[in-house]
Design a protein that fits this description.
The complex is a heterotetramer, with two copies of chain A (300 residues) and two copies of chain C (252 residues).
Chain A (H helix, E strand, L loop, with lengths): L5 H8 L5 E4 L8 H9 L5 E5 L4 H8 L3 E6 L11 H9 L6 E4 L2 H12 L4 E4 L7 H4 L4 E4 L6 E6 L5 E9 L5 E2 L7 H7 L2 E9 L2 H6 L4 E3 L6 E4 L17 H10 L3 H13 L4 H8 L1 H4 L16
Parallel strand pairs in A: 1-2, 1-8, 2-3, 3-4, 8-10, 10-12
Antiparallel strand pairs in A: 5-7, 6-7, 8-9, 9-11
Helix pairs in contact in A: 1-2, 2-3, 3-4, 5-7
Chain C lengths: L8 H12 L5 E4 L3 H9 L8 E4 L3 E2 L13 H4 L4 E2 L2 H9 L6 E4 L3 E2 L5 E2 L2 E3 L4 E4 L6 H7 L2 E5 L25 H4 L7 E5 L3 E5 L6 E6 L5 H6 L6 E8 L5 H11 L3
Parallel strand pairs in C: 1-2, 1-5, 5-10, 10-11, 13-14
Antiparallel strand pairs in C: 3-4, 6-7, 8-9, 11-12, 12-13
Classes of the chains: A alpha/beta (300), C alpha/beta (252).
Chain lengths: 300, 300, 252, 252
Amino acid sequence: MKTMTMAEAIAQFVSNGDTLVIEGFTHLICFAAGHEIIRQGKKHLTVCRLTPDLIYDQMIAAGCVDKLVFSWAGNPGVGPLNALRRAVEQGVPHPLALEEYSHFGMVSRFAAGAAHLPFMPLEDYAGSDLPEVNPQIRTVECPFTGKQLAAVPALNPDVTIIHAQRADKEGNTQVWGLLGVQKEACFAAKKVIVVVEELVDTATIRKDPNRTLIPGMIVDAVVVEPFGAHPSFAQGYYDRDNAFYKDYAEISKDTASMQAYLDEWVYGVPDRATYCQKLGPNLDKLLAKQQLCEAVNYGY
Amino acid sequence: MKTMTMAEAIAQFVSNGDTLVIEGFTHLICFAAGHEIIRQGKKHLTVCRLTPDLIYDQMIAAGCVDKLVFSWAGNPGVGPLNALRRAVEQGVPHPLALEEYSHFGMVSRFAAGAAHLPFMPLEDYAGSDLPEVNPQIRTVECPFTGKQLAAVPALNPDVTIIHAQRADKEGNTQVWGLLGVQKEACFAAKKVIVVVEELVDTATIRKDPNRTLIPGMIVDAVVVEPFGAHPSFAQGYYDRDNAFYKDYAEISKDTASMQAYLDEWVYGVPDRATYCQKLGPNLDKLLAKQQLCEAVNYGY
Amino acid sequence: MVTKTRCTLKELMIASASNELREGEVVFVGIGLPNVACNLAVRTHALNLTMIYESGAVGTRPERLPISIGDPALVTSSLSICSMFDVFNYYLQGGRIDVGFLGGAQVDRYGNINSTVIGDYEHPKVRLPGSGGACEIAVHAKRLMIVTPQSLRAFPEQVDFVTSPGFLQGNHSRQKLGIPGAGPQVVITDKGIYRPCPETQELMLVSIHPGIGLDEVRDTLGWAVRVASDCSVTPEPDEAVLQVLREKLGSF
Amino acid sequence: MVTKTRCTLKELMIASASNELREGEVVFVGIGLPNVACNLAVRTHALNLTMIYESGAVGTRPERLPISIGDPALVTSSLSICSMFDVFNYYLQGGRIDVGFLGGAQVDRYGNINSTVIGDYEHPKVRLPGSGGACEIAVHAKRLMIVTPQSLRAFPEQVDFVTSPGFLQGNHSRQKLGIPGAGPQVVITDKGIYRPCPETQELMLVSIHPGIGLDEVRDTLGWAVRVASDCSVTPEPDEAVLQVLREKLGSF
């Protein structure tokens, strides 16, 4: 049995100086884990993700992060990540090192890590200046055609945290809707924390094994945390809180407003359940309508 | 609309001399397509597959095949493929060239083909004699660690044929149960034929888009052919005809018995529907029991 | 020269971009105006356009205009949802994308795009979001479309940083590097429409929006632009198209 | 020396193989006797064994003994079904497999396995099925188990073809090549059980089956086998284990 509270999971599996991944491409971003990392005051993290968004921005503002590895850093459709910009442009709260790829490069790094290959070839970056500013983007020659391809190194995080719709107590995790790069990020990691909306019986998992994205055998902790992805969304559970993403431009506009937010919504609450109570009816408005798929027959 | 009969699909998309793949790992092997290829007397094919089994054996016996690219050739749990052995050991009905890998090598070849990469690196073959007898198994040096890895070339078939549970008329294809290497084999191919147990509305596909293994945009023909995988199986539709696999040792034991089988069950029937009528109650015994999964909510 | 137009310049950009999409094509949809243009095309002249979002939604028909590239409305109407590994490996690098659609903070004379930094990389004046999928879309899409508002700052002669390759230094330098896609075939701004010169690949003005003067075009471009001999005025969208845009997709 | 045993030699092989599996391990299950041994282990002492079949069934608990490696009964009781791309890349090469389980037409003095050809490769006496997943299982599984009946033909001093690397020429030659897995840690035949010598990696007899004489062992091996100083008689399975084997999995 791997179930534990978020506080326990972060305390046990995330250490100062770790290379950490909280993956999720728009869908299923685990804000609850990021907030707990801030509360526990983790330091000197190298955080990696295709799309560092609001939660990484908050972790940067809170001083948890020394280095960011990424491919697109912004508040999608709204604007820049202000805390990230303050760190890069002004060294506030302290300087932040950047290592940047494109999405395909990051996906390939996770895939190499998952497959325990030291690198992955890809056809990319020709004509781009990215390899000039990142010496980790190299080339490899095809032993059959002589063609030069780009190559990126494996990324093997110390810890990967993902959010999912459901899992059993051993961490067999089912996801539907957008899948992002979560499978590769988990298989690449030394430790995996899965945070779910719902804990289900193993029998439920076995009834539809094609939905299992992450097998329990690679999972170290299962945290049951309803609404743990808010303001991101969980297909079938709640919609994205688009208003919050817009408001975040104002929330993060300077260090004072950012600190006020952290004080109220992160340091000021002990856990996600309290955060949800505090949100109250705003959360109810996001609840998903029912749109069930059809069952398929697995019999033989 | 891409729906057509098997005879039309094979006539239109499979040419003499083609590199052809009928994939399926135990599950969803399209015997119906192989039989139609035999009936249409296709010649000089290079056939590729991880596990050439009874249907490739019959195609070899019928003289359709010049070369086999594979990783495991046998009748699983029963014994050797007799027509294949006659071709290799005695040149009957004509000599057969072999190019062999391991499963991982074949999977990597399809993945490279699907990703339009000229090769794929893998950690394999160290200490094995396989690279000595197959010059297509080479090495590549990691540009980060200097480590020597194995490399296999992309496999891009002219045609890939797969069997599946269901598709819409544009070829959006859903599969559950064992998935094999079908996705990679389809994306690697220049032309794709999908053979299905059932044609469904596009609305059914859109209700559960995570089940779609093959998007219609890469599919050229959709053939609706119930029981088209027999004696292989289709999860949720019918079980494997294990008795037939056992009987096949006797059926294929010499050229005369093999020819008698082909005469009766391939040349002697115009299509799969007639084959099924001829099987009659033997087919009914294989029908799947109902074991439905639970529906999940896709709402937001 | 001020002409009364029925639509806003943003609407004209969207409609012009939509017009570039052909029925049956496969388009890799970016967020922002490209998203609107694609969703307009499937509701007007390209009913069988296959829209792919980098989040893994393939063949989607969202009932609401997706707010982000990973909106849940993309999922419930998709023909397929696949992992991002599949999107980049099998769809994009696999050569399955006809049209890529990008914006960018800077676009230069040869259609190179910068979405990384303004100024020096190590000490940037402005740190931008970075490539995302843009670099590989620019490399692999069979043809590329760029949609972005025009200003002197946004259209320098040479971008500060090449995030996504256009025609590089022109004169077939892109082709010589063996980059698979054909590069930017059209750039649509709020002033006009540009296409690459077949010989030099320099962007040429081929169409000017109604109400925009040639001086305004020249004052907002970082190089002395060539004007195609058959340069025309951009046609305004049909009333029916405008109606679909406004009623189904919003005000722009 | 003929001893009356309660079980057949095949049953003894199965039970001995099952005994090698430890609770909580992840085992890559091959078809044939390994399949039976794993399905026995999960029904007796290793209830939390994770069985992975190369067909993509992960953590399966089949209600009937799977007849093939891709039996539908594997699916309906799995924790996860994944593609073969994932099986080989993320599970096997990814270093997630504790135990690999192989048979083979030939096994030699250093645990190298041949499942490709008997005789010359170009002009074989017998064409065998080939590697399947065996080569990579032998490379990547943290430890390898080999289960196969013993005969002079099946146990030559040196295999005709190395399909799957054991300890190669011994004396740490496997380790020197940097092969990730530790190689064959046990070979179970119908005569006895062998383990590699820590120094030379030559297979040594560590256990002899009841009713089998040392002459019979020697007459069916292609090399002069070393007998471990503590070589014992293979213990027969408990009555309870035998009962599970016979009632749930069949006659062997």
